[in-house]
Amino acid sequence: MWYSLFSSAAYYGCTACIIESVVIILLHNKNSRKISEDFVVPLLRTTTAGCRPPGRYEIVMNNNYMCYCGLYCENCAVKAKVEPAAKVLYEEMKKAGFEDIIRFIPDGEGFWRFLKSVSQEGACISCREGSGNPGCAVRICAKEKEIEMCALCKEYPCDKFDEFFKGYPILKSDNEIFLRDGLDQWAKVQDERKAKGFTYSD
Question: Model's pTM, two decimal places?
Fold first, then answer.
């Protein structure tokens, strides 16, 4: 298996791919489940700039929004609906002169600071960057094990996912796509959902 990884990386003439191969081997030996060639080779070819074979899906997503659990932040209602709505509300209220009178409204200044922050900076920067529930057991575990996606862990699915699967039934099948078909197909599914206006709360 590992010989084929290095051969694939060398074929596409990319030193970064070879380095990434070494990283995946180390993760595999340390705490990851056995990863098939059908997953690893596409992963190497699609996550490293300049190495994409012709005709493969061009990933649109922001990798920082790939949650450890397998959710994709940009398909969350906060990113997809709340933040855009906050921008519209802030701009319309500003045009209507609320910025000048907000101090006269009870708790108005605190609300205005919050609305401005959400509209300009966003409400969430992804769980990888520190947003979300600081006590999330899944995130804490993944970071401790230095695993990029929980689906790659040899213990997945563990009891930490019991509540996740109840709240996000689609998550289980998404992680199956990630393992079976690779990052390309998983990313394509997420991008297509985003384009259609899908959110997990729908």
Answer: 0.61
